[in-house]
Amino acid sequence: MTRLVDDADFVVIGTGAGGATAARVLSAAGHSVIMVEEGPSLGKQARARGLLDAMSQSVRDFATVATEGIAPIPLLQGRCVGGSTAINSGIIWRTPADVRLAWRRDYGLDDLVGPGLDRAFDVIEEELGVATVESSVMGGNGHLMAHAADLLGLPGRPMRRNVPGCRGRARCLQGCPEGARQSMDVAYVPRALESGARLHTLCRARRVLFRGSRATGVEGVALDACTRKPIGKFRFSAHRAVILAAGAIHTPLLLLQSGLRRNVGDGFQAHPGVAVLGRFREQVGMGYGASQAYEVPLRDRDMKLESISLPPELLATRIPGAGATWQQNLARLNHFAQWCAIIRMETRGRVRRGLFGGPRVHYRPTHRDVERLKQAASLLARMLLTAGAEEVYPGISGVRSVMTEAAQADEILAAPLRQRDFHLMASHHFASAKASNDARHGVVAPDLGVHGAQGLYVMDASALPSNMGVNPQHTIMGVVMQAAERLAS
Amino acid sequence: MTRLECTWITDIVAAFAPPGGPGLAPGTLEVDYLLVFRRVGREATRRAAFGLRIAVWVVALSPILLGRGMRTFSRLRPCEQTALLGQLLAHRLFAFRELTLLLKFVAAIALLGTDSVRERSGYDLQAATSVQTGTGARHHLPLVPASEPARMPSEPPGELV
């Protein structure tokens, strides 16, 4: 069994939005940095078109990590260099003002979400080429949603994304074949490497090492590239600090495995999403256009509606039925549009260590959360039918499986639905190692250092105190950029 | 997996889109459902892989569980198999419909992950044309006139989808 040993000023676990930003800032400041990534490094040529290969390469456990309970919610997480930024649609949202106010008021994060955050956003947007989706790559799916929003008077707009030069391949989940999306594997990890950082891929961190209360390094196992079975061990020493950025599910797991307990994993939040399909007489052509192009933010209703062009395999799964009916629809995949809603759920769950060492995520939507789901699904169905869909498939048990008139969308509101009647997916995860100036209520301090430990930081969505109702990548990067700059100096 | 389970998997997953059916139909043995099932099981968490296996047993024994005689799924006629899958997908019991949906997910991945079937679906044809020609810039409603329905690449001229 091989044994890998290395040392640097900083050891960063994870190469997603948080880890890559921290590594980029620290290495640019002249510090030696080791980046540790459990997944592989995938060049744009290596990214597969087919869902099976693509998800095997870059999605953790084929998106089968799910919440506990009778109706599990799959938790989508990237596992490759770039983390979840390598599988998302590159949607960029500055932290909303009401969220910043709440974090300052309730958690004392004045420095992190003060004016410095806007400066960090300016830098990131410049470096990642953030721009509004151009009409030429909106695609039929995005254009149709814009049309529906116009007809219903909803406040929609083309998204802002970090995809300069997008050619509308609609393959964000599988990996941009053009390399246009400025995910962390394209943007900040290469910058960190240019500044002298070192990257160890296929290394799964097991626990943080301590001398007294000071973090001194990380140990774990090296994985085989094909089987992902352990083939060796590693031990990376940190002269100054260990930075955990493994995401809001695995960062708390690492903390728990390292003997840290207080508040760890408590307060987990997410943005579960629900999608509705519509079939049009004309071709929509979801295979062309930005994977996500248009959005209708409804913050007062705790939801955001988005156009979403997923791979045809996932689209096919959502089309109801089996046999002839299903096959006839499969021959008309180009006639489908798919829109989703991400819900800012109020419920808080917890992350714990499972029997075999993996995460156990307890998360149960409240009654109000389910009501929001109903409202979102009903509105999506109404929008699709208003835009001219011949048939709408809400994909909700307990209501009709095919809707053909806008009034039928109200049935979703009236039906006595439960969470298990929806098919949900949660791709934004938060708050499992919350930042707070009060050690009784948080895991990390406002500088993102772990309360009660020295030289140990959490720099990912775990540290964000709550969900936000908008896509979190930009907030993670902005918050981490500031914290890393302070750490570097 | 046992040989019996492998037989059940092939029978069940293939029954979602039987060969010779209307629309997008695979040829006999064109799609390797068992291979895809195994790969999905290997990539999934232990719990999900276990769920997949349970799904096979539940659907295989569903004629018995639903009181339709002492027959397994494989013993049903093809049209009965497909009809049963449709009923299970819409079943009021969460376990029935969700476990069946897991197998439908495998069927969809296998079908559209097979290059020849995916090509016949025509899904990528318009996309490739749009990317090459930049016609996306001129996409405004209606996107394609209703009088010009899409034509499958492999279909003979004159026969519409």
List keywords for this structure.
A: 489 residues; alpha+beta; FAD/NAD(P)-binding domain; Glucose Oxidase, domain 3; 2 domains; 9-stranded antiparallel beta sheet; 7-stranded mixed beta sheet; 12 helices; 18 strands; B: mainly alpha; globular; disordered C terminus
Q: How would you characterize the largest beta sheet of chain B?
A: none
- Considering residues with a beta carbon less than 8 A from a beta carbon on another chain, report the largest interface and each chain's count: A-B, 61 and 61 residues
Number of strands of chain B: 0
The oligomeric state is heterodimer
**Unreliable stretches of chain B, pLDDT < 50, 5 or more residues?**
136-161
Total individual domains of chain B: 1
Radius of gyration of chain B: 19 Å
State the share of residues found in helices of chain A, binned by percent.
Answer: 25-40%
Instruction: Assign an overall shape of chain A.
Output: globular
Tally of domains of chain A: 2
CATH class of the largest domain in chain A: Alpha Beta
Mean pLDDT of chain A: 96
What is the distance, rounded to the nearest whole angstrom, between the alpha carbons of the first and last residues of chain B?
39 Å
Explain what the structure shows:
The complex is a heterodimer of chains A (489) and B (161). Chain A has 2 domains: 213 residues, FAD/NAD(P)-binding domain; 201 residues, Glucose Oxidase, domain 3, CATH 3.30.560. Chain A is 27% helix and 23% strand. In chain A, strands 4, 10, 11, 12, 13, 14, 15, 16 and 17 form a 9-stranded antiparallel β-sheet that branches. In chain A, strands 1, 2, 6, 7, 8, 9 and 18 form a 7-stranded mixed β-sheet that branches. Chain A has a two-stranded antiparallel sheet with strand order 3-5. In chain A, strand 1, helix 1 and strand 2 form a beta-alpha-beta unit. In chain A, helix 1 packs parallel to helix 6. The longest helix of chain A is centred in the last third of the chain and has 20 residues. The model of chain A has no long low-confidence stretch (mean pLDDT 96). Helices cover 57% and strands 0% of the residues of chain B. The C terminus of chain B is likely disordered. At the A-B interface, helix 2, helix 5, helix 8 and helix 9 of A face helix 2, helix 3, helix 5, helix 6 and helix 8 of B.
